Structure formats: C-alpha cells, structure tokens
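Q: Sequence in, structure out?
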Amino acid sequence: MLLWIRSAHRPGRPARRASVALIGAGLLLPILAGCGGKSSHSPAREAASAQAAPADDRVIGPGGEAGVYHRLEAGQTLYRLALLYEVPLDRLLGLNGIADPTDIPAGSPIFIPGATRSLPYPGPTLAPLSWPLRGRVTSRYGVSRGSRSHHAGVDIDGENGDPIYAAAGGRVLEAGRGGEYGRYVLIDHGDGLQTLYAHASRLLVQPGQKVEAGMEIALVGQSGNARGAHLHFEVRQAGRAVDPLPYLRGHAPARAASQ
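A: Exactly. Output:
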C-alpha cells in the first residue's frame, strides 16, 4: 500500500495538522484538524496557495523511505535519472531491484528516495549520442569492485566482425593502432565532445574523414589488451573521459539473433 503524504500548511498562515483516512481499498480522504465545525474553504485562497506552494508527490516506497515514483519512458535512461535527482545510481539499482540498468522495460516506475516531486526529464539534447554497437554492457565506467584501475569507458559485448557505428556525426581525428587500445578510431563531434572506439579488428575510416551518425567506422575485434571480442567505447568532454552512459540515447539495443 502506498501512503500519500500531503502538506496542508500554507505560506503566511498558521500550520494545521493533516491526517489521512483510509476508506475501502485505495481511497484516500484528507481530514483537516482545526477548530469548530465551519468550513474554511475559499476558492480564491485555495488557488493562490496552490500556485505559491510546490507540489508534494511523496509516497512511502521500498524500505519505508519517502520519495516519488518516476515512470521511465522510452528513450530515458536510469543514469540520466540518477543525475537529474542527484541520487547515486547504485542506490536506485538496489531500491528498485534492478540487476541490469541497460535493460529496463519502457514505462517502468522507478522509486526516487528523498524526492518530493517528479521532475521533468531533460530534453534529447542532453543525450546526443546513439549506441555504437548492438550488445550488452559488460563493464561500466569507473573503478570496478576488486580492482584499483579506473575504466575510462564502457565495454559492449560483440562478436568478431560486428559493425561499429559512429555515435554522432563529426570528423575522424585518429584512426590506427595505439597500445592497449589496439585498433581504434577517435572522432571529434564539436563543442568539446569526442568519442573513441577501441579493440577493433578492422578500421573502415581514415584521419580527416567526415562521418555521419550511424555510419560504419570499424569492425569488432579483440586487438590490444582485449580479453574476448568487444567494443571499448569512451566519451570525452573537453579532453577528459566521462561516463558515456548518460550521453547515450535510450537503452543498449540487443544484438540480432544469429542466423
């Protein structure tokens, strides 16, 4: 059962206690505790108060915590949701019982602890990149458990020869071999945004070449220090590696079934 918490206090007026009566299954009746039996309802005053006071949409969620539910629509990601509400991603995963944040059905309600109202999801300009490969994310950005090394991107599972696509339009800065990266491509998208695609088996573009979003730029491989065929994908903002997942639109597309 979810208990809605509503504040009856209006700015500039003495606070009144609010209680909630349950009638039947799921019907909520607010009862205001006050003096006398006269109604204090004033349409004009109620309208002014509704505009002055922010909405409070809190419910009691998992673990008895107060918060709100945000419906994760198609094209939205849990990573961007964590940034929007300033809640650690791992906390959202635990409270909502999510094992794989890249595989959440559209329309799923996500509980946000500590939030008082549902916030508008940022526009698509904040997630400007498309997925460069169809496959499951096998390693995320950051320091993984049991390791002290920092992973500067995400690893996406694939098979040798799978096509790798440009995540957005831009110009190829580098295309060649580079130490642990093996065969890699670095694309500049303007405004300080760059993407890197590593461990390829074959490169299909050259430095200086202009590319469009969705264009094949390389083939999956296991060059460099790769253990198994996959794509190592990085996003760099102003020359610094950042978590790629908030920049990617929607969820990781599934690989096509083998013929």
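The domain at 60-125 is CATH 3.10.350.10 (Membrane-bound Lytic Murein Transglycosylase D; Chain A).
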